[in-house]
Write a structure and sequence with these properties.
The chain has 13 helices and no strands. Helix 5 packs parallel to helix 10.
């Protein structure tokens, strides 16, 4: 009993330690005055309203959302055919492509960012809006690639073989059996790439500089001219978006299974 109590106390302290910075940021975001003070002096939600009423913050938020949507969509479009090809037939070339798909996310972000900077500067496209979209898509392709590969691994081959013996061709099997079965894995991969792209700074800064201002870049710019609680407010907003997105994935897609925590055979 004592050991169980100590274990709960330990995890409670760890949880409190991890949550402490978020609590401080949340407190600062509702300060009535424009000051970096905790506990907050007064209470005001005006800093949250400023995210949508101030043209610069609203523009940065819209830019971040559009970039994240485009990057996540391209990442899924890259990962899906790779996962499908490897599911159909495992080859050495396919494994190499899969490794290349995962490698950008394994490398330190600054290495990927420098590589993207060198490439776009060489082809003369540095600063163009599409450079950060494509760079984020390449950087985060590993996320949908992993989840989609897990989805293909759950498909029972006997189901597709039965459909084939009934006269279904590969296209019909793909559209009526395979894609519906792996749809939750596709959505989860898109969600992971979207949230991380929304918060990514280094690759975005290296590819577009200040020509396309995302929220992380806007926060960095604002810090040069002084602190405003709006920075804390939009940070809490991004945390809330991540919680909602991953909460929906967990609710409708079985998050532990999507992350490969267990297989069907290991579930009770």
């Amino acid at each position: 009993m004592t050991e169980k109590l100590l274990s709960r106390l330990f995890f409670a302290l760890v949880g409190l330690f991890l949550a402490a910075p978020l609590v401080v940021i949340a407190g600062v975001s509702v300060n009535e005055k424009q000051s970096l003070t905790f506990p907050p002096q007064g209470f005001s939600l005006s800093w949250y309203a400023q995210i949508f009423t101030d043209g610069e913050w609203r523009g940065a938020l819209l830019t971040s959302v559009l970039i994240a949507l485009g990057a996540a969509s391209i990442a899924v479009l890259i990962a899906l055919p790779i996962g499908y090809a490897l599911w159909r037939k495992t080859t050495l070339f396919g494994r190499i492509v899969q490794t290349l798909g995962v490698s950008p996310f394994v490398l330190p972000p600054v290495i990927t960012a420098l590589g993207a900077l060198s490439f776009w500067a060489t082809v003369g496209s540095y600063g163009a809006w599409y450079t950060v979209v494509i760079s984020h898509a390449v950087f985060f392709t590993s996320l949908p690639l992993v989840t989609i590969s897990l989805g293909f691994a759950t498909i029972d081959r006997e189901v597709t073989e039965a459909a084939r013996t009934m006269g279904a061709d590969d296209r019909r099997i793909l559209t009526t059996i395979v894609l519906p079965m792996i749809a939750p894995y596709i959505v989860s991969g898109f969600a992971f790439a979207f949230v991380l792209s929304l918060n990514e700074y280094i690759v975005a800064y290296m590819t577009v500089g200040f020509t396309q201002v995302t929220v992380p870049i806007k926060i960095f710019n604002a810090l040069r001219y002084g602190y405003t609680p709006t920075m804390a407010s939009i940070s809490i907003l991004f945390v809330a978006v991540a919680v909602v997105v991953f909460g929906l994935v967990a609710r409708f897609g079985d998050l532990p299974r999507l992350l490969g925590a267990w297989s069907d055979g290991g579930r009770k």
